[in-house]
Amino acid sequence: MRIPLIAGNWKMNNNIHESISLVNNLIQLSNDFNNNVEVLVCVPFTALYSIRKLLNSSNIKLGAQNMHYDEKGAYTGEISPLMLKEIGVEYVIVGHSERRQYFNETDESVNKKLKSSINFAIKPILCIGETLEQRERKIEKITVENQIINAFKDIKAEDAVKVVIAYEPIWAIGTGKTATSEEANEMSSFIRNVFKELYNEELAKQVIVLYGGSVKGENASELMNQTDIDGALVGGASLSAEEFIRIINFNQQYEKVNKEIL
């Protein structure tokens, strides 16, 4: 059974004081969380240690937004998986479009990071998705398929199943635009078919597929209740405890809408 995952990606926001305040608010409101959903916050490197101590007494998971693939070395300014593991980081985002666009990350480096995170037992969230130009040229599925094939090069099935996939159409990240629930689900279903071809049908059924791209409390229910979407990678909306909880509790909204229809 696939357990839904709601992950907040804070990006380059919140100093340590602001991070602590936001997480304390989440913890205080955590009794209202949907118990059938796993909750994750991916905070800036500077706040990881402080937030880890706060989360020790909660069910909220801790994630990093990036990492280097080597354990140590002469890589000024980089953070290794060993450093993240020592803090108690459980998840790490790999290959976000902003990393690819602004910091020249390649399919090759993403592949190395996936292997490294698996090796250190840190669960990777692999980001994939197409640009608006690629969608308009109708090559969005070819683009996503190639990203998956390249990312999972030389990764065995027993390790591949540990990777969470985040489908983020680049044109919808931080723009206020959102893929329709049908578009998002169609791509999520396609992603499972790619895994079926790469590995096997059982693995394709098990892999967790998130949707990311201007997810908010108002559209979370419709997105998350699609057949092949298992959660969300949330950007700006995760910076508000109240809005993030609205997304976490997407099933409550779904039930409310159904009751109103009936």
UniProtKB/TrEMBL annotation:
UniProt enzyme class: isomerase
> Which InterPro entries has this protein been placed in?
Aldolase_TIM, TIM_sf, TrioseP_Isoase_bac/euk, Triosephosphate_isomerase, Triosephosphate_isomerase_AS
Q: Which gene encodes it?
A: tpiA
> Its pathway?
Carbohydrate degradation; glycolysis; D-glyceraldehyde 3-phosphate from glycerone phosphate: step 1/1; Carbohydrate biosynthesis; gluconeogenesis
Q: What does this protein do?
A: Involved in the gluconeogenesis. Catalyzes stereospecifically the conversion of dihydroxyacetone phosphate (DHAP) to D-glyceraldehyde-3-phosphate (G3P).
Query: What organism is this sequence from?
Result: Sedimentibacter acidaminivorans
Task: Report the protein name in the record.
Answer: Triosephosphate isomerase
EC numbers: 5.3.1.1
Pfam families membership: TIM
Please provide, alphabetically and separated by semicolons, the GO molecular function terms listed in this UniProt record: triose-phosphate isomerase activity
Which keywords label this protein? Cytoplasm, Gluconeogenesis, Glycolysis, Isomerase
Q: Which PROSITE patterns does this entry report, sorted A to Z?
A: TIM_1 (PS00171), TIM_2 (PS51440)
Q: Which CDD domains match?
A: TIM
